[in-house]
Amino acid sequence: MDRTWLIDRHNELKTLRQPEERLWKQIAELLRPDDQDFQGKTSNNSAMDEILDSTPLYALEDFTGGMFGQLTNPANDWFGLGIADEELMLYQPVKQWFWTVKQRIRATLGPTMSSFYTEVPSWFADTGAFGIGTLYSEEEIGRGSFLDRAIPLRELYIDTDAAGRISAVHREFTLRGRQVLQQFPGTQNVKEDREYTIIHAVMENPDVKPGRIGPAGMAWASAYLSPDLVQLDRRGGYNENPYHSIAWSRRSGRVYPRGPGHIARPDMRTLQEMEKNDLIADQFAADPMKLVHGEADFTPADMVPGALLMGGMSDQGKRLVEAFTPNGQIRDRGQHKQEKRAAIKEAFYFSVMQLINRPQMTATEFTGFQEETLRRLAPNLERIQQGGLTPFILRRFRILQRAGALPPPPPELDGQMLDVAYLSPLAKVQQMQQARAADQLFGRVMQAAQVDPEVVDTFDIDQYIAVTHQASVAPPSLLRSPEAIAQRRQLRAQAQAQQTALDQAKQQVEIAATGAHAAQAQTLAKGRPA
Predict the structure, then answer these.
(1) Which residue from 79, 121, 84, 123 is spatially nearest to 103, judged by alpha carbons?
(2) What torsion do the CA atoms of 493, 497, 502, 505 make, to the nearest 10 degrees?
(3) 132, 180, 174, 184: which is closest to 157 by C-alpha?
C-alpha cells in the first residue's frame, strides 16, 4: 500500500460518501446547525438564527441525554464481563475475577485517565442525527492515560465488506504546522503558521502474520499521510480497530446507515415552514400594510404608537391612510404544529426515555402502553451495544491485558470466549418483562400455598432468584456459588440430622425412664402390706 494508492483510496471513499452529504446537510440545518460543513472544514458561521422552532434541538438533546444516562451513566454499574458457560460463571473464583477486571476497566473510563464520559454524548448525538457515530480510542503511551474522542462526521469516511462489517476507516482533518511537528516530529518543510490536511487511514491488514511482533502481526494496518506534505508518511498498526462506529439502522446496498434524524426530517422541515408562515402572518396582523395617498407627507418611520401622522387626512376629513387586510382568513395551525412536534419527539423515542426514567412504573404500564415501543427500539439498542460499546470495552480490556494491568485469569477460563453483558437500566428494561413474570408467578404460588402448602414444592426458588438477579444491577458477589450453596445445605442437613438423632435419643431416654419409674412403682406397690 504505497502513498499514491492510499490517496486514491481516500478519494474513492470521498466519492462513496458524497451522495449522503446533501441529506446530512439538510438534517444538520435542523439538528446540528453549527455542524453543516461536510467538506472537511469547520464552519465559523452559526446557523442558529435560521431555527424558528427548537423542538428538533430539544428532541435530539433528550435522545442524547437518555442514551447517555441509561446506557453509560458513570454513576451506574452499566456493563459486566462474562462467558457463555452459565454454570462456570457461578464458580466463585471466576465470578470474582470478572468483577475485578470490570472494576479495572471502569477505572480507566474516569476523568483522571480518559475523556470517555465527556465524549460519549457527541457519539450518541451523531448517531441520533445522522445514523452513525464514531468514537476513537487509543492508549497514550508514556502518559498512563487513554485518548477517547468522538470523531465528527465531516472527518469520517468508511467502507464495508461483503458482510456489512466496516473494513476501512479514513479520517481527514487539519492541523496547524506547529501541531504537525508535535504529532509527527522530524517532518520537513512545515510552516508553523499554515494549516495542513492530514489523512489517517485504518484498514484490515491483508498481509497480517499472526504472532509477528510489530505492525506485521496486527490485524489492522494504519497510515498517516498528507497530500500537502510528501515527506509525511507514517505507518503502523492496531490489534483491534480503534474506530468504534455505531450504525443505527442499516440500509441494503448502502455503506452509511440512517438514524432518527432521517425519519424526522420531513416533519422537522414542515414544522419550520409552518412556524415561518405563522410568524409572517403575525407580523402582518401586528403591522399590516398601509394604503396611502400618493402625496402623503409621512414615511413608514413616522408610524409608531402615539405619533401624529401629518398628511394622513385630507382637508375634507377623508382618511388618506388605511390598513390593508388581505382576503381570506389566516388558518390556525396550532393543533397541526403540536402533532408535528409530537411526531418529531417520537422519532427520537421520547416516550421510551420518559418510561425508563420512571422507576415507579407499574407492570401494566410496562406490558401495555410501552411494550411495542420498546420492541421497536430493541434492534437499535443491540447495534449500539454490539457495534460501538462492545468493541470499545473489549479493546480496552485487551490493551490492559497486554500491558499486564489485569490479574491472571483462573485456569478454568482457558479457551473461553469473553463476552460483554450490559447492566444499564435501558438494557435491564429489556429483561424486566421476564423478571416481572417471575414475580407474578411467585406471588400466585404463595397465594396457592395458603390453601395447600405442598404447592410450594413445584416452585424452584433457586431459579427464581437467578432470573430476578439477572434483571437487576446487583453485584454478582451477593449470590453464593453452587458449591457454597451445596456445602451450606449439606451442613444444614447434617445439623438437622444430628438434632433429629438427639431428639430421638432424648425421647428414647424419656421412654426408658418412664418405664423404669412405672416398674419401680409397681414393685413398691407389691411390697406394701395389705
Answers:
(1) 79
(2) 170
(3) 132
CB-CB contact of 456 with 445 (8 Å):
yes
pTM across the whole model:
0.75
Q: Is 133 helix (H, G, I), strand (E, B) or coil?
A: strand
Distance (Å, rounded) from C-alpha 504 to C-alpha 522? 27
Map grid coordinates 441494503 to a residue: 252
C-alpha cell at 450: 395458603
Sign (positive or negative) of CA dihedral 66, 71, 72, 76: positive
- Residue 419 CA to residue 409 CA, distance in Å, equals 14
Amino acid at 482: P
Round to whole Å and give the CA distance between 26 and 256.
16
From the list 151, 117, 127, the residue with the least C-alpha distance to 64 is 127
Query: Is-contact 70 426, C-beta < 8 A?
Result: yes
C-alpha span between 203 and 159 (Å, rounded): 9
| 418-431 confidence digits (pLDDT tens) | 999 887 655 665 56
19-23, 26-30, 84-88, 510-514: least confident range = 510-514
Q: Which residue has the cell 432521517?
A: 262
